[in-house]
Each structure stands twice: as structure tokens, then as C-alpha cells.
Design brief:
Two copies of one chain form a homodimer.
Chain A lengths: L4 H8 L3 H9 L6 H14 L5 H8 L4 E6 L5 H16 L3 E6 L4 H13 L5 E3 L8 H11 L4 E4 L9 E5 L1 H15 L4 E5 L5 H16 L9 E3 L4 H13 L6 E4 L2 H13 L9 E5 L3 H6 L4 E4 L2 H16 L9 E4 L2 E3 L10
Parallel strand pairs in A: 1-2, 1-3, 3-4, 4-5, 5-11, 6-7, 6-8, 8-9, 9-10
Antiparallel strand pairs in A: 10-12
Chain A binds a DNA duplex (16 and 16 nucleotides) through helix 2 and helix 4.
DNA sequence: GTGAAAGCGCTAACAT
DNA sequence: ATGTTAGCGCTTTCAC
């Protein structure tokens, strides 16, 4: 169907090998022959088959990337970082949206191995029912390097780049305390997710270090979705012993939280203070001054990809590397304690 | 390196062909042999090579998808739609973020043809410097079906699924007029983009049909980016003969527009009315009642993918199909004309 | 400097 | 019901 290397060879009056040589700049080819071949290639509009090449070289130059939700801008930014580095190294990437679903994740993983990708960057969905990490482990044993980004799977023996979630939320909550807040609520993520758990730990730690007793009634177990942020904020706003501040564990829940606050006609920070984990671009754009803990998304992607590329080098002995990035606390005023 | 079909054959004491048969459920295999083979496959942890299969069948079952910006939730949703349908048909997709950049787009296109993808869904970046449509045309002539989503390239001879931008903005602007607005500003997109142009046309048409003279001073030529929305809204708000309403041609510029409005301490719709093209989830979430023209993103993706799959069928004669979806006008109150 | 030929892992006639 | 074999398009070793 398509024009192949042998069509080129025939038309140029040389052998396959010679064509291949000019294609790959390998071995010696007389300048004259080279030019003739190049011309024929142009003329016939030849495009080499990556498939055939991959098969022949047992090397695809393709990497797999798994994200839980492609419509979440945070992941979008991570992907930007990943693509950028991949591009520079002329690596292809196959991107899979796992829809935050272990089954889809597994299906994608299988598809990727069939495609003989040479490495995987994965942003896992959660740690629950953790059968996929077994599968990942198998892949790694088969020689496919795995790099985790912003999450943890069961076997911590994978390399990865993470955000220091504990420190991030510790800083946020401590800031609230220093502002004078004493009753600080938290809306957490699912407790089977490492990042969510760590954010909770940071919260507890900050209270403890500042001699504030944690109160169960101020702890709301959310699930990283808008709805839970909305629902629990509503509850919080109606408490008789209402906390003066809320620490919300991720961006989506913060949106829900804000909705509840606006609906109830409460003002930030006059009526209630909040700090969010994760930046929400839009808020800044709209001039809504919500303070947040900023996980470095693009950076996460870039570093993850660089780690992966390094471990692609077969010669290098594979040691497990872990890099943890410290998130930055960005204060916008929503953390302030106003006399109420 | 990896275990191959012949390893399986050897260990199971059969020939390659037989193994291939059970792998593909083709031809007859004795139940007993089948089971034995299946067992060996499990045991050796065999994963077929899609690469080898593709080469052998001259068929990759892989599609290419090009998006201008993966961090834009609108495209994220289109991708969700695409993935969903692809999944159901067991088609793989390679997704490329072109960064709204013709060169990257071209590079991705080349990469995709090397990968021998069997079809392409493309959301083009703009119509400007339109050399890629030539390339696309070449690809199509080579038998690779192309489906356009929400954009137009130079050669309108491609199939595609679009949004009726003219009608969308016509409805929006007419609504403003019916509300009593007479001075209606527009912030457009770049005039080399078909959708942007059409949205402008809808605006003009609505004015004309309602016997309102279009005033040049109310037309602001933006570029679909936040900054331009911000900048022109600032200008608008400072005009001595200030319009009572703004029609903003896309979501990003609307964000900039809102920022300018809030910064100036203007109220919607008390001080100024607006309608946006494109839904912005966050606004609803936050309880900001901005009316908008809603392009059906997920639907766009699903339909686009279905069209592509249809034209994958080689038997089918390839006719150019165009489907245009009518966007829905969602009124939230920001269009109201309040006595000022 | 160039060519011949084996091989990458699999499929699909064609035999048996 | 199963085996043999010729490709798929390319790379690479070994000859010449």
C-alpha cells in the first residue's frame, strides 16, 4: 500500500541496505548516492514505518503516560511538562485517561505493554484495591521502568516525584493558627489515598505542635470532588459551634466550598477563612483572593519525565529514586482572622 | 527478550500457527490444545506484541488525536468523548498536544503517520499560515481518514463535526437586544479562525436583523486569551459612551472580562450585562450567574469519533460528511438590562 | 561504499 | 485440527 524502503531502493537503483543507511545516517554512503536516494524519497513521498523499525530494533521509543482525569487542569499541566521533555528527547508518548478507575487503568497498562512502550509515568488514582501495583511491579521486573508522579501505590519501591503534602498542609494550617484561628475545620480526601492522608497528617501535626486539640467534629471526610466540598461546607456553616477557618484538601472541593459560602452569603475572610490545597487559576483571574498551597504541576511532569529518561538507559543500574518537591504557600488574604 | 509466540509454541508442543489461532480465536483448535496453550501463556506471562501484529496485518488499530491545548477543559471534555467511543471499539489513540502551534502540529502529524495510525481527529489551531491542511490533504489522499472537530482548515473538503457558531452568537446577541440593550460591544477572537469569524458574523447579523447599526467603536478584536478579554473590557468600562452589554466570544476572554469587571467594582448585570460563548463550569460552581452559549464538548468528541470509525471502513465510499451541532443558550441572569 | 540475507514477532494462506 | 511457510518493512551483520 504505502511506499516502502524497497520501492525507494528499486527506483534509486541501490539495495535496501543503502537506503536504510541514509535514512539512519549510519555507515558510509557516497554523497552522490545519498543525494539520489534522498531525491527519490522526496519524490515518492516516503515516510518510514515506525512499526517496522520498532520491530526490527526491538525498541519503540514510546512511553506511556497514565492520568486519572484529563479534564483536571492540574494534570493537564503535568502533561505539558511531560510532553515538553519527551519532545526534546524525540520520544513519543501514548497518553491514557484512566477516569480514576482501576479497571481502566489496568486495561490501559495492558494495552501499553502490548504496544511495547519502554517506560511508564503514572499518576495513580488511589491506593485502594491495589491490584495494579502488582501488575506494575511485574512490568518493572520485565525491565520497563516506572515513574510515579504525585501519588503512591502499594509498593513504595518505585521511583517517583512527589509533593510534600504533609509540609504543605502543615504550613497552611499553622498559618491559620498564627493568624489566631483556633477552631479549624478540615475537609479531607479519601483516606485510601496517600496524598490525601498526608494532607490530613499535616493538619493534625500543625494542631498538635501548636497545642490545639483536634476535634472530631471539625473533621469532614470528603472525596476530592466538588460535591463533597459543597456538602461539608454547608454543614460547617450551619454548626452551632462554627469553626473560624476551613482547610480544604484539594482544588475541586474548594470550588464546592466556595459555592456553599457564596450561596450562604458569607464573606471571605470576614465570616469564614479558608486555605485550599492546589492552586485554582480561575480564582486569581477572577480576583477572588483565596490562599492556597501550590503544588508545582509542570515541574512535576518535567522532573518525572527526566527521571524516566534516565532509567531508560539500560546500562545505568536501576536504583529507586524519590524526589519530593516542597509546595509553596501562597497567601492572598483569605486566611485572615477578622474580628467577628 | 520478552517471551514470544514461539516460546509458547515450543513449551506447549505445538506450532506457531496454532498459538496464533487461539490468540485470535480464528480457525479450529481442539479444546484440549487450546487449554494447554492458554495455560502456558499464563505461566510464561506472555503479552502479544501489537507492533508485530500491526506489521503483519498492516493495520495498527490506532488513531491520532490532535488538540491545541490540553489544559483547556473544553478540549479535555472533547477528549473524554473521543476516548469513550474509542474504548468501546477497542481502538488505541495517540494524543498530541500541539500547543496551538502549527509547527508542533506538523511534527505530530508526521510522527503519527510514521506510527501508521489509521485515522486522525484534529482540532486545528487556526486557519492562519495554513500549510498543514495541505499535509492533511496528502494524508487523506493516502487513505487516512481525517475528521475535523470544532474548527476549519483551508480545504473544507474534510469531514467534521462543528458547532453552529453563527447561530450561537446570533441567539445570544438577539437575546440581549430583546432585553432592551442597544449598545452591545463584542470582543472577538482572531479573525483568521473560522469559529471566531462566525461568532462575529452572528453578532453582526443579530444587530442587522433588529435594525441596530453596528458601531465600530464597540467592536474589539481579541485573540481568545484572557489578557485580551481583560484589556478590552477595561477599555469598554472606561468609554464615555459605554455599551450596556458585552458579548464575549470565548471562555478564556470571559474570565479576563470578569476580572476587569470585578476589579472596577462593577456589578453584573446592574452595571453591565454580559453573555459568554462557551460554558465555564467554574462560574456555575461559584454561583456567578453568567449566561453563556454552550458548545456541546463531550458530544463533539463522541460524534467526531463515530464519524472517524465509520470512514475507517474501507468498503464504504468516502463521502465528506459535515455535522453541525446547535449550541444551547443558557441564561443565568447576566444578560438582564437593569435601569441604570 | 554497497549488497545479500537473516531476523524482529506475528498472521494467513496453503498443505496435510 | 494442526503444521509449514511466506511475507509485513525495516535494521544490521557479514561479505564483497
Amino acid at each position: 500500500m504505502a511506499v516502502t524502503i524497497s520501492d525507494i531502493a528499486k527506483k534509486a537503483g541501490v539495495s535496501l541496505a543503502t537506503v536504510s543507511r541514509v535514512l539512519n545516517d549510519s555507515g558510509y554512503v557516497k554523497e552522490e548516492t545519498r543525494e539520489r536516494i534522498l531525491e527519490v524519497i522526496k519524490e515518492l513521498n516516503y515516510t518510514p514505518s515506525a512499526i517496522a523499525r520498532s520491530l526490527s530494533k526491538s525498541k519503540t521509543n514510546t512511553l506511556g503516560v497514565l492520568v486519572p482525569d484529563i479534564t483536571n487542569p492540574f494534570f493537564g499541566e503535568v502533561i505539558k511538562g511531560i510532553s515538553q521533555i519527551a519532545d526534546e528527547s524525540n520520544l513519543n508518548i501514548i497518553l491514557c485517561d484512566t477516569d480514576d478507575n482501576k479497571d481502566k487503568e489496568l486495561k490501559s497498562l495492558k494495552m501499553l505493554t502490548e504496544q511495547r512502550i519502554q517506560g511508564i509515568i503514572i499518576m495513580p488514582t488511589s491506593v485502594e484495591d491495589d491490584f495494579n501495583s502488582e501488575y506494575l511491579k511485574t512490568l518493572e521486573n520485565m525491565g520497563i521502568p516506572i515513574v510515579l508522579v504525585d501519588g503512591h501505590v502499594k509498593y513504595s519501591s518505585f521511583s517517583g516525584v512527589f509533593v510534600d503534602n504533609i509540609k504543605g498542609s502543615y504550613d497552611a494550617v499553622e498559618t491559620l493558627i498564627k493568624e489566631g484561628h483556633e477552631k479549624i475545620a478540615i475537609i479531607t480526601g479519601r483516606m485510601n489515598s496517600k496524598p490525601a492522608k498526608d494532607r490530613f497528617i499535616g493538619y493534625k501535626k500543625a494542631l498538635m505542635m501548636n497545642n490545639i486539640e483536634m476535634e472530631d467534629k471539625y473533621v469532614f471526610y470528603g472525596d476530592y470532588r466538588q460535591e463533597s466540598g459543597y456538602k461539608y461546607t454547608k454543614e460547617i456553616l450551619e454548626m452551632e459551634d462554627r469553626p473560624s477557618a476551613i482547610f480544604v484538601s484539594n482544588n475541586m472541593m474548594t470550588l464546592g466550598c466556595l459555592k456553599a459560602i457564596f450561596e450562604g452569603n458569607f464573606k471571605i475572610p470576614e465570616d469564614i477563612s479558608i486555605i485550599s490545597f492546589d492552586r485554582i487559576d480561575i480564582l486569581d483571574t477572577l480576583g477572588l483572593n483565596v490562599s492556597y498551597v501550590n503544588g508545582p504541576s509542570v515541574e512535576l511532569g518535567k522532573i518525572g519525565m527526566k527521571m524516566l529518561i534516565e532509567s531508560l538507559d539500560e546500562n545505568e543500574l536501576k536504583e529507586v529514586k524519590n524526589i519530593t518537591l516542597i509546595p509553596e504557600l501562597v497567601l492572598r488574604g483569605s486566611e485572615k482572622l477578622i474580628k467577628r
